[in-house]
Amino acid sequence: MEMSEESGATSKYNDDGQIDDFLQSIQKIRDEILRKESILQERSAQCDMDIQTLLSEGKMTPKVVLIIRKYKETCSDTTEVTNSSCSGDGGQSITKRKKLKKALLRQCKELDEICRGAHWILPRYTVLPSVSDGMYHASVRLRCLDFEMSLTGGLRATPHEAKCSAAANMILELHKKAEEQEQEGIRCKITLLNS
C-alpha cells in the first residue's frame, strides 16, 4: 500500500474498521502458517524417531519393515502417519485412546483461546523424539509484552500428545500466575485499607 504525502491520504487508512479487517486477515494468515508449522514439526519428530529406530536396529526386523512400509505408502493425513507409527496401544482400547486424544486436543485449543483472548502471540512448540524410550517430548513458549514463559510437557506416545501435554502444563502455570496476581491485588487493598 502506497500512501501519498497529500493531506488526508493517511485518513483513509486510519479507519478503525479497516484496521480490524486487516488485523483479522493477518491473524488468519498467521494461524494457517502455525497450523502448517505444527503439522510439519510433528511429522519431522516422527521421521527423527523412525531414523533412529532404523539406525539402532541395523537390520531387517519387524519394526524396520513397518517403518519402510509406512514411508512407501502415500498418506495425505498427518495424523494417520503419526498414529500408524505407534507400536501397540499399551493395553488401551482404541476408544480410550480417542478419548485421550480429544481431551489433550482441548488443552491445545484452550491455550490458543487464552492467548487470543489476552491478545498475545499464539504459543510456539518444539517437539523432539526421546530415542531411548520411543516417546516424544515437547516444550511450549509464550512471549508477550508483560512476560515470557517456557515450559515442557511429559513424555507421550505421539508428537501431538506431547505438544498438548506441554500446553496443559502452560495452562496450569497461567492459572497459578493469575491467582498470584489476584492475591497480590488483595494484599495491596488490605494494606491501603489499614494505612
Structure, explained:
The structure is a single chain. By secondary structure, this protein is mainly alpha-helical. It has a single domain, classed as 2-Layer Sandwich (Double Stranded RNA Binding Domain). It is built from 5 helices and 3 strands, in the order ααααβββα. The protein has a 3-stranded antiparallel beta sheet with strand order 1-2-3. α4 (94-117) packs across α5. The protein is elongated and about 75 Å long. Mean pLDDT is 78; it is low at 1-9 and 76-93.
Determine Rg (CA atoms, Å). 23 Å
Q: What general outline do the C-alpha atoms trace?
A: elongated
Mean pLDDT: 78
One letter per element, helices H and strands E, the order comes to HHHHEEEH
Under CATH at level 1, the class stands as Alpha Beta
Given as residue ranges, the uncertain stretches (5+ residues, pLDDT < 50) are: 1-9, 76-93
Write down the domain tally.
Answer: 1
Provide the CATH topology: Double Stranded RNA Binding Domain
Distance between the termini: 57 Å
What portion of the residues fall into strands of 2 or more residues?
A: 5-15%
Number of strands: 3
Strand order of the largest sheet: 1-2-3
Please, how many helices? 5
Judged by helices, strands and strand pairing, the structural class is: mainly alpha
Q: Considering DSSP H and I runs of 4 or more, what fraction of the residues is helical?
A: 55-70%
Sheet with the most strands?
3 strands, antiparallel
CATH architecture: 2-Layer Sandwich
